[in-house]
Amino acid sequence: MEDERPGTLLRLRKKLNRFVSFPSLAFQMKTVSVALVVCLNIGVDPPDIIKVSPCARMECWIDPSSLAPQKALDTIGKNLQSQYALWQPRARYKLALDPTADEVKKLCSQCRKNAKSDRVLFHYNGHGVPKPTVNGELWFFNKSYTQYIPLSVYELESWLGVPSIYVLDCSGAGVVVNAFIERPDWALGSSSVSAKDCILLAACRATEMLPQSSGMPADVFTACLTTPIKMALRWFCSRSLLEFDPELIDKIPGSQNDRKTLLGELNWIFTAITDTIAWNVLPPDLFQRLFRQDLLVASLFRNFLLAERIMRSVNCSPACYPCLPLTHQHSMWFAWDMAAETCLSQLPSLVKDPNAEFQPSPFFTDQLTAFEVWLEHGSASKRPPEQLPIVLQAIVHVLLSQSHRFRALVLLGRFLDMGAWAVNLALSVGIFPYVLKLLLTTATELRQILLFIWAKILAHDKSCQVDLVKDGGHKYFIRFLDSPDVYAEQQAMAAFVLSVIIDGLPRGQIECFQSGLIDICLRHIVPARGEPLLMQWLCLCVGKIWDGFAKAQLLALHTNASSTLAQLLSEPQPEVRAAAAYALGTIIKAKSVNEEDSALDDDDEEARLRMEQDVMKTLLKVVNDGSPLVRAELAIALARLTVRHDQNLRFAAAAYLKPPSNPGIMALAGLNSNRTPTSSVNISGQFFFSGNARGAASAPASPEGFNFVENELINGLMRPRRLQMEESGVYVRCVAAAYSLVRDPCPWVAKLGHEVLRRIGVEAYVLQTGKTLKSGAKQATSAFPRSSSWFDSNIGSLTMPFRGASSSASPPSNLLSGSPMNMRRVPSLEFPSESDSGLGSSQVPASDDLKELPESVLYRWSCGHFARPLLETSHDEEETALIAREARERTALEGASKCRHSTVNVVTYQMATWDMNSEYGTKAVLLHPFLPLACTADDNETIRIWSHEDGSLLNDFHNHESHSDGSVRVWRDYLVKGEQQLATAWQAIQGHRPGARGINAVVEWQQSTGYLYASGDISSIMIWDVDAETLVLRLPSQPDTSVSAMAASLIHNGLFLAGCGNGSFMMFDVRKQDKQVFSQKAHFQRVAGIDFVQSGIDTTEVVSASQAGDIKIYDVRKLDLPVVSVEAHKGHLTSLAAHRYAPVLASGSSKQSIKVFSATSGDQLSMIRYHQSIFGKSIGPVSCLSFHPYSVLLAAGASTDSIVSIYAEDGAAASNSSTS
After folding, report:
1. pTM above 0.85, yes or no
2. Which of 1066, 1076, 1069 is nearest to 1119 (CA)?
3. Phi, psi torsion values for 1148, nearest 5 degrees
4. Where does the chain cross the membrane (predicted)?
5. Are 56 and 169 within one domain?
6. Which of 626, 689, 1082, 1212 has the smallest number of CB atoms closer than 10 Å to its CB?
């Protein structure tokens, strides 16, 4: 049974840990009143007990027969009080020696009165009276001591009240415990008493007698509870093989509270061992209740474990309520015996020579070593380390246990780094108040490990913030953050801790604000350039300080904090840019949650509004940022702006939707003012403004453009204020940004854009269908119809004026610096569901609904960094990833080498074909480089993942609603049906021609640099760093045409080709100052395809094909004249594919043919016109071709049917037939 308990307990602990909320402070309840009732009647034995001779006589270590009866009784009472006072010196003690029932009633009532709502302890020594009755009655005396008077325990309970604890030291004490347990209800009078409010400790079971062995005291149970070290050592000596004088135990030098003395060392070890036993065998909630809520109760239950061990050795079983599992045979008791023996071996020499040096026990060192061994191999799936409470004891005393403290803290930090389950276990042990106390120390060697421990605790349990602020713990971390001699990672951790302290806690905001945290964070932002984690958390920290705190917001505005934060909006890390946008957004006052905020006068309020406009000017630069995190923060900032600037935004929306008479307005809004709108917009017809409690029901545009009058409510008075043209332009740009966000390719951001428009009061109606605008994620990108209105004809240019510094034409000097193998790549974003985002539908919002602002997920998402393991990564995961990566690299190298040395003859063998059963033609097809998979996309933006080994469909999902909108979406986990997730999405092509119905986007990915090249119906080529999610370059293309095809070099970083609609192609090298290195008019019609061909190890060629059907191959070293020219098709060429390593290329025609050519000579190798497996049916008009990167496999799709085929060399057909 003992062997089964640990596994069962482990499962129980895991189950309960999900529900038990551990208090932050260890001892939250006090036992302030103690009633000591001693019924000895010395000289008269009770009638139901026959004592043997010799028998146990000692009471509180006093032999009653050695003194006069009354003197002995008084001495025993005083000793009992002093023994309890060691565990709770501040309690009020009341003695009742041989009392009557009335005296007990008076005593209990007085104790409850003194204790109020705190706990009362009732100690009952009934060695001089009969055993309790079967009804649970205790015996007392009459006034003349001629009779025993029974007193029901229920009456006793009614006088003591709750909470209370009963210590019953008498024979048959278990009867009282049974009476409590078997009670039908816990009702006393009109008040209800919970079972958790009463605790009982009984010396034995209902049918047992107290031990009478002369080697033990008569009150052995009380001795174990109040003098555990003395009792434990005496019992140990009686069983030990060592020759040891028990009388020396009374001469143990030192104090129980002095850990540097022998007695203190023994008490320290005993506390650690009993805590460890209890923590390992008790459920978490019971451990918290008995060992972490009340100092005296915790001490009594630790000592109760000793009583169980000692008294069970003489066939007596202590009982208690709540019931505890058996602990008398726990393995940790052997550790106590060894520690006791080690300490006692020094006792004779220490007694003989008081100046002799005491040698501490190796107990803690050994246990910490055992814990360290567990850390090397432990995990959440294994049994928790039983040494965890011992680690706590090594930390407990800040000044007195320095020998073990640092090592214990380091091991604790390693344990907490293992995850939330480890933090939960540590809190269940009661680690919090002691690491809180350590913040008072000035020891510099503890700063880093204490910071790490607190970061781990707060990453998983935010509730500790209240106690941290209460005890001034935030000042410790502010000093750490402002220290000049710490690493940036540690400063970031300090900023994280402070942000959690502030998060949602107004008092934390006030304390940190008064401690100058805003100034400290802003001072460290600029020097932190180059340390993204520190920059990110400095921004999040200041954002948390002034979010909803008007005083802090005003300080930020007056100190021009926005200019400091604006510098971070062009940082290469999207997390830093998003954090800066978050901090800027929280400067805008939306609501006040802090009672310290005072009313502002009119001038301050007007100045504040102007400064908030300046903040929005800064934030509008990120409207086209490549990271959805950043764009989401802009949308949330716009939502905050609608709270106090709603009327201005309504006027701006009206003017934005109606062509203004003043051309200067369009320039302010960033729109093309040189173009005449095709038609005017009837605001009342297509758009309307919904009224709500915060503003007027309608907002007509001012006749003079945007110099309209705003009725401003200040201090209860409506005061008119005429907005200047510049101010009006800011609001118009905000409205334009909101409409841009509505079209965002990320559904989460688009939903936020809808929320901004909803809060402004704008509702869109589609005139053609009469349907209202939907706010769902799937409809977000297509809700606004294309039309010839002024609004629609201008919306295409909205993206241009909002480009920030990151989209500058001058690139960074180190565009391609750093190893691309170490790139972070695209961060995975878990977009919140509609229910989580708090965004409603597009119906007219109620005033109460508008009070709830959309919340940012950035902070919660960023906190995940510190919740993950930081000290050590999983070696198994690293090794697995490394093995997989090496296998892929080996496959790629072998495949490339094989393709280089291959001689391709005929590629006609149709090795795989499948019908997508779609009414839409195939738009693109790609072959997975390492798996036998093909990815197809049709004209309806449906993506399908196929296995070309068995033709099975693994997954299919919809990419997006609107077609050719110039956006890029990155998906992950796409191989499993329904498990695909959108990792990131952004508008890769910006500044397209206004009113264009499609962009005809052309994109190319370069693996070695992590760059995405994008163009289309625009006069430029945009180069995106996908890792940084930012625009690094915008290169001008030919102004009179658009890019129709692109290709990036696999060998030369930053080298790419662009084919144009006028038949020319250009070569760019982003590493050079003059990015465009060559331009050639190669064809007379549109370039349908272009690519690099590796014809040799040191030879790179360019192949280009036009819609007219001609294919030309150029040597990259001499691009003036083609090396090979081929008339592949007589017009109607639709696609071109060139193998990167094998000397082969293929072209497809809308005339239902595919031709394969030699890339060296231009000779035609084969032609495909018919399917081999569908009764000789002709292939459809070819729309797309793609070669496998490391095998000679050609994938083809058609524009009129949904059949996709994969072709291989004819030798592969012979190989397959011979194998079969």
Report:
1. no
2. 1066
3. -125, 150
4. none
5. yes
6. 1212
